[in-house]
């Protein structure tokens, strides 16, 4: 019996069609490993990926390691500066050897470039819950003996903040 030959009848997997184009685009920016671009969040972690994007890999004249340029906002640059060595270690794990010897941090505005390539997500601060009438009454009772109106109102606000704070 003849062995059945697998055929796709003219259809190709999307990944096989895009692999060459992704590789060509990433190599134009110096990324020998396109996985560094496509799986950035997995490589460096969610916390760093939320504030930084890889931009370029440039190779030195003598070939002693490459420099990875990372784009971030100005306020997040000091955070990344302290984590350069951990980022370099994680990126080199993708390459399988010490390909990256230096990391450069480039700062930009929070919205990034005009093309929208570097949009960074902003942290949303949770809204404080409105104190219930029972909490307002308890806060008023705790500051009730104070004669100064300004001091009493400040103590009431403090008591409301303490009583509405969630226990974590």
From TrEMBL:
InterPro entries: DciA-like (IPR007922), DUF1159 (IPR010593)
A family per Pfam: DciA
The name this protein goes by in its record: RNA-binding protein
Basic and acidic residues bias locations: 124-133
Region (Disordered): 124-146
Lineage: Bacteria, Pseudomonadati, Pseudomonadota, Alphaproteobacteria, Rhodobacterales
């Amino acid at each position: 019996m003849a062995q059945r030959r697998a055929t796709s009848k003219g259809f190709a997997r999307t990944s096989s069609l895009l692999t060459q184009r992704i590789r060509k685009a990433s190599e134009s920016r110096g990324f020998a490993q396109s996985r560094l671009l496509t799986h950035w969040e997995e490589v460096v972690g969610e916390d760093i990926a939320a504030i930084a994007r890889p931009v370029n890999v440039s190779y030195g004249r003598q070939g002693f390691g490459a420099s990875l340029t990372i784009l971030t906002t100005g306020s997040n640059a000091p955070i990344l500066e302290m984590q350069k060595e951990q980022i370099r270690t994680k990126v080199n794990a993708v390459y399988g050897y010490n390909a990256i010897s230096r990391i450069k941090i480039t700062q930009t505005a929070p919205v990034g470039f005009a093309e929208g390539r570097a949009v960074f997500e902003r942290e949303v601060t949770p809204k404080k819950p409105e104190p219930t009438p029972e909490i307002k009454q308890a806060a008023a009772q705790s500051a009730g003996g104070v004669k100064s109106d300004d001091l009493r109102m400040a103590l009431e606000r403090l008591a409301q903040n303490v009583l509405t704070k969630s226990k974590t």
